[in-house]
Amino acid sequence: MAYSQDIHLRSRKRSNDHYSLVLDAAQSVTEICSEHGLPCAVFGSLAARLYGNSRCPNDVDMLVSEDLNASSISPPRKYPRTAEDIKDLIVRSDSYHFYLKASRKPFADYRILWYRQYYRGPECKVDIVVPGTMHLPHLPRHRSPDETTEYFIPVVPFSLLLTHKLQAWVDHRVAQDLYHRQKQHKDAQDVRILLTIAQALVKWTACIHCVWNDEELFSKEFQILTNLRVRIYCRAFPHLATVWRNIGMDVEIRLANFMKLELEYKELYN
After folding, report:
1. What value does the mean pLDDT of the chain take?
2. What ranges in the chain are assigned the alpha helix state H?
3. What's residue 160's pLDDT?
4. How far is CA 146 from CA 133, 194, 196, 236, 260, in A?
5. Which of 87, 122, 123, 140 suits 205 as a labelling partner, its CA being 20 to 30 A distant?
6. CA-angle at 82, arms to 129 and 214, nearest 5°
7. Per mean pLDDT, which range of 19-23, 98-102, 177-181, 186-190 is the poorest?
8. Is the CB of residue 152 less than 8 Å from the CB of residue 27?
9. Are the C-beta atoms of residues 147 and 51 closer than 8 Å to each other?
10. Is the separation of the CB atoms in 194 and 51 below 8 Å?
11. How many whole angstroms separate alpha carbon 79 and alpha carbon 68?
């Protein structure tokens, strides 16, 4: 019994230490982006943790936007920065903590950004994503991202986080390779926890249907895909259909089976 408790405590300490590392990385990226006038917000597993999910994130997923019409951009830019441009900017700004690694994928035309607390110390990956990737939107300047008061890290709106976690679940579910299909189970658990959090958020009680039709966050194509993803999810987990309905989503699935729904999804998405 004592041995198992010791293993549990050490595992918990490793998890807490890694979470602190991920938070440090997110805060550092936020500071650098702020210094260069780049709106940013975390999404993915770190955002889910900041909203209340208990699972420890492995890395940082950061959405970085750029408003070319902003007067603060100096010198003026004709085209927005790419993800690779932003990674280079972060490394130039803080080469002690950030560095780039070559991708393991053959012929990859990108490098991977890593954060470390000190040289050869604990490290975590930082994924920089720009608007347009995976249907992620620009971050409007007149709408500040939600911010965690405890860590001062901007996070994407909850509706955006939930719909993108749902997207990850369906994409992994219909993936052809086993490696990505195995990820669907962790995604499904994340979505289920986020649905519980959604019901507890007070903001969902006012104009709840307007949340999903927000054209600043969701393109028309993404809204159509989200409705289909919700139907697929409810077919897999019918006991959660009421929760989706309570937060304003269409959960009408009739008698459609998985194969038909997933085939329809693949045709729309591809």
Report:
1. 84
2. 2-35, 44-51, 83-93, 158-173, 178-181, 184-200, 208-212, 220-236, 241-246, 258-269
3. 93
4. 21, 16, 19, 31, 37
5. 140
6. 50
7. 177-181
8. yes
9. no
10. yes
11. 7
**Residue partners of 262: CB distance under 8 A and separation at least 6:** 170, 173, 174, 232
* Pairwise CA distance, residues 97 & 119, whole Å: 8
Q: Which of 66, 27, 61, 62 is nearest to 153 (CA)?
A: 27
Between 146 and 65, whose confidence is greater? 65
Contact 39, 81 (CB under 8 A): no
Give, as one character, the DSSP assignment of residue 53: -
pLDDT digits (tens, 9 = 90+) for 102-127: 988 888 889 999 999 998 899 999 99
Whether residue 230 has pLDDT greater than 60: yes
Length of the chain: 270
| pTM of this structure | 0.84
List of domains in the chain = 2-155 (3.30.460.10), 158-269 (no CATH)
Cα–Cα dist 233/255, whole Å:
14
Per-residue pLDDT tens over the stretch 133-164: 999 998 876 666 665 556 889 999 899 999 99
Return d(Cα 119, Cα 158) in angstroms, integer.
35
pLDDT value of position 1: 57
CA 109 to chain centre: 23
Indicate the DSSP class of residue 248: T
Q: Where are the alpha helices (DSSP H) in 42-174?
A: 44-51, 83-93, 158-173
pLDDT for res 199: 83
